[in-house]
Amino acid sequence: MHGAVNLGLACEGISGELWYIVSDEPTTLQTFREYGLRFDIEESFLDDKSNGF
Asked: Which of 1, 18, 34, 51 falls 20 to 30 Å from 45 in CA-CA distance?
């Protein structure tokens, strides 16, 4: 059996992209900022691996 989870939902203002975050810790606006930064970094790494294309 698993413990309780927290569900965070957000809609990004400019693109209207919907984000869902499920976590064992409380989700706040800061949680979404941190995930957004993480995704930006991961996309940069992917671009670097593929020579920017």
From this structure: 18
